[in-house]
Amino acid sequence: MVDRGASALSLPDDWPTHPEPILALNRMGSFDWDLDNGLFHMDAQAHEVFDLRPDEFDGHPESLASRVPPTEGFRLDTLVSQALKDGSENYGAYFRIRTRSGTLRWTHTQGYIRRDETGRPRRIIGIVRDATEELAESEERREQAAADEARRQQTNVVQLTTAALAHARTVQDVIDILKDTQGLTHLGATSLVMGLLEAGSRIRLVAEGPSGSFVPGTLVTRIDEQYPMSEVVRTLSPRFIESPEEFAQSYPILWPHITDLHITSAAYMPLIAQARPIGAIGLLYSDRAGFSAEDRNVLVALGSSIAQSLQRAMLYEQEKDLATGLQQAMLPRTIPSVPGAEVAVRYRAAGAAGSLGRDIGGDWYDLIPLPGGRVGAVIGDVQGHDTHAAAVMGQLRIVLRAYAAEGHTPATVMARASVFLHELDTDRFATCLYAEADLSTGVVQVVRAGHIDPMLRGPDGTCRRVAIEGGLPLGLSAEFGSLEYPVGTLELDADHTLLLCTDGLVELPGDDLDDGMHALTGLISAGPLDVRELADRLIDVAEERGGDDDVALLLLRRRVLDTPQAGGRLQQHVAPGDPEALTGARHMIRAAVRAWSAGDRADEIELVADELITNALMHTEGAAVVTLRVLAGTERRLRVEVEDSSSALPRRREAGESGVSGRGLLLVDLLTDVWGVEARGGGKAVWCEFVVPERD
User: Fold this and answer.
1) Cβ proximity of 79 and 111 under 8 Å
2) Parallel/antiparallel/unpaired status of strands 191-198 and 276-285
3) E strands along 349-429, which residues?
4) How many CA atoms lie within 13 A of 54 on its CB side?
5) Which residues of 555-574 are buried (b: 16+ CB within 10 A; e: fewer)?
6) Which of 300, 258, 250, 254 is nearest to 280 (CA)?
7) H or E segment at 137?
8) Are 433 and 378 in contact (CB under 8 A)?
9) What is the rounded CA–CA span in Å between residue 37 and residue 54?
């Protein structure tokens, strides 16, 4: 041990002059080394430091070899020689001497080099002293510092582990964090075991290590059995095992099975949350014996942190199971088979970390078979990601299905659903898109409540976004007094696919909606033609991308019919005193006329159909059934039929100058190419036809 920074001694030039009393007070001896003649003078205190009697030292440095071990002497000679050569004024070093009894003890020396005018070293004067107590204190300080550092490291591991456990969502997350090489192994543990309490009477092992260390028969153990985890759960107190002998004596059933692990000590802690045991954890060591008070406190604190994390994880999993079960119950168990269409639906739960229940949400889909070869397709998203969102979603799905099955128009279905959600005891709103498709004609009527637009894909892979004018989200339209939901129309040709989805499939982190729709368009265009394979591909992309939102997806592909059809057919029931039904019938007529490329005569067709419906409702006591169809032949015709339950035939009559009625049949006769009346059982049907151009 070298101290090159020792200060020079301030001694007079004629030293030695008996400084022994002063040095002796400080337990120091002095020496004077004449480099010219090689004599080494030491005072009485220096002899005592070297444990030499005066008659045992002849004044030559070589005579000190009996007290200075060779390795120490070589180190000192090297130090002094270097100081003499490099012009140093002083040197200092710690070295060991061998006492008369043969034991080694530490000594310290400081030397001051005197040189002549040429710089040649002529003399070294200095001191020696016993440094045993000094180095012992220093060693004690080092040991204390090492112990403090070890405690800091242990505390740091506990803090880091606790911070990591704060992000654990499941029991498996907790186990993975504890078994991570950056986790408990920094505490020196060779392996860990952990069990959870079941039914208050048994412990199920959920983690064990290292690989291959599982003890048969310990997967499930009773708390009254002689196992360490059972004991700490039973007593609610930690158990520290400080030797293999203690382990073997205390747990003779377990010990023979783990002797190959070379366990020297172990610590088992009960996992207690809210004053109740939920399990136990054990740390097994192969390189330590015993636990200090600090060690025990650290491990107990760690056990408390693990218990809190486990309880959160168990509550999360329970909540997740409940929410997932609720959501699965709310979504359709099966999708009905629809003649003339291929349908695929998919759902992906959100995968974001966060509060309990974040893996579920309010996205849903539904497919509703309707009379007359029609089908209703629904996609929607209730605000939020929790059990409440799933519950609201289930109720909305049911009422939408009921309203559609009652025969209401798409706009009416959406308006009534909005009123229902507004009157429901909730602060949630929902976006929704409802598409009612007539598979015989391909005409699709679409209403949109704050939802993203549908997509349409052709058999050649081309895909486009269909812009549909929309209304407010469900629940908000009624609140703001606006229940208007415009009806958009599109035509779904054979082998074309209609795609409805929630925004979880579209929205990308950092991108706007248009960018997401553009990316989705590319995915659909490049995807397979089969709707099931395409649905799988899209949901796989959503899974790979992850994200904070769940995804619902519905694809409907209109099939090519095996037999040629004369034309399309749409039908609407209009009840008396139901203005919404009358409005819906007008929407249907307008949409069909546009879809069937009869736009040039749209106003005429709509006016005549409206007149026939009004006559049926005014002059009969029942409802009217409106049917539109396309007739193929030498020329293409659009036929409108209005059927009622009255057998009384309509008659043409003259209207007076101030009359407001009587002109209906005149309009029918003037605007149609042909019209007539047919008997239908207990009622009749008034029909008319319009010649329309062939479709492009």
Assistant:
1) no
2) antiparallel
3) 362-370, 374-382
4) 5
5) bbbbeeeeeeeebbbbbbbb
6) 300
7) helix 132-165
8) yes
9) 20
Pull the structure tokens for residue 135. Answer: 């180095």
pLDDT reported for residue 18: 52
d(CA 470, CA 119): 102
For tokens 């090489």, what's the residue? 181
Label residue 509 by pLDDT band (50, 70, 90). Answer: low
Query: Token pair for residue 480?
Result: 């703001």
Q: What is the DSSP string of 20-84?
A: HHHHHHTTEEEEEEETTT--EEE-HHHHHHTT--GGG--S-GGGGGGTS-HHHHHHHHHHHHHHH
From residue 303, give the alpha-carbon distance in Å to each of 201, 214, 275, 307: 21, 22, 13, 6
β-bridge mates for residue 240, sequence order: 267
DSSP state of 377: E
How many Å apart are CA 2 and CA 91, to the nearest integer? 8
Question: Quick one: which of 474, 320, 329 has its CA closest to 387?
Answer: 320
- E strands present in 234-306: 239-241, 265-273, 276-285
**Per residue, what are the HEC states of 72-113?**
HHHHHHHHHHHHHHCCCCEEEEEEEEECCCCCEEEEEEEEEE
Q: Phi/psi of residue 46, each to 5°?
A: -70, -40
Contact 57, 47 (CB under 8 A): yes
The per-residue DSSP string of 445-501 comes to EEEEEBPPPPEEE-TTS-EEE-----BPPBTHHHHTT----PPEEEE--TT-EEEEE
- C-alpha distances in angstroms, 381 versus 323, 509, 521, 550? 16, 19, 21, 9
With 0-12 / 13-18 / 19 or more C-beta atoms within 10 angstroms meaning exposed / middle / buried, residue 130 is buried
Compute φ and ψ for 268, nearest 5 degrees.
-120, 130
**Helix, strand or coil, per DSSP, at residue 427:** coil
- Looking at residue 30, its amino acid is S
Residue 17 has pLDDT above 70, yes or no: no
Q: Which one-letter amino acid corresponds to residue 437?
A: A
- What pTM, to 2 d.p., does this model score? 0.52
Closest CA to 486 of 548, 409, 430: 409
Q: Which residue has 């030695």 as its token pair?
A: 16
Contact residues for 10 (Cβ-Cβ < 8 A; gap 6+):
none
**What does the pLDDT look like over 316-367, one tens digit per residue?**
777 777 766 776 777 787 888 888 899 999 988 775 434 444 456 788 899 9
Which of 96-105, 369-378, 387-396 has maximum average pLDDT?
96-105
What is the number of residues in the chain? 696
Which of helix, strand or coil describes residue 121?
A: strand
Closest-CA residue to 260 (of 226, 215, 227, 217): 215
For residue 502, give the nearest of 565, 541, 459, 553 by alpha carbon.
Answer: 553
Output the CA–CA distances (angstroms, integers) from residue 368 to 90, 421, 559, 637, in the order listed: 101, 20, 18, 31
Cis ω for the linkage preceding 371 (within 30 of 0):
no
385 φ, ψ (degrees, to nearest 5):
-135, 80
Query: Which pair of tokens denotes residue 223?
Result: 């708390």
Cβ–Cβ < 8 Å for 567, 630: yes
